[in-house]
Design brief:
This protein is an alpha+beta fold. It contains three helices and four strands; from the N terminus they run E-H-E-E-H-H-E.
């Protein structure tokens, strides 16, 4: 398994109604053992979460299932992280 950092950045379409679904998504990943860490940025512009996935394609699929992304509230950036 590889580590991927999923960075969510709020868009001008950000809707607070999507936050509950976002946290449900993270809880599901946690129960599946894929989620390592997560949290918002202190400046309120978004947040990030660290997951384990087999490939960039799998990480992208997981990220695109996030309601923040599906509903356009946030944009998604994914980076494979070579942790040491």
């Amino acid at each position: 398994m590889n580590y991927f950092l999923l960075i969510t950045t709020r868009t001008n379409k950000f809707n607070t109604d999507d936050i509950e679904g976002h946290y449900d998504h993270l809880e599901k990943l946690k129960k599946e053992g894929a989620l390592e860490k997560y949290g918002p940025f202190s400046d309120g512009t978004g947040g990030a979460y660290l997951i384990k996935a087999a490939s960039l394609e799998e990480a992208t699929k997981i990220g695109n299932l996030d309601p923040l992304i599906q509903n356009g509230s946030s944009a998604l950036t994914i980076k494979e992280w070579l942790l040491r």
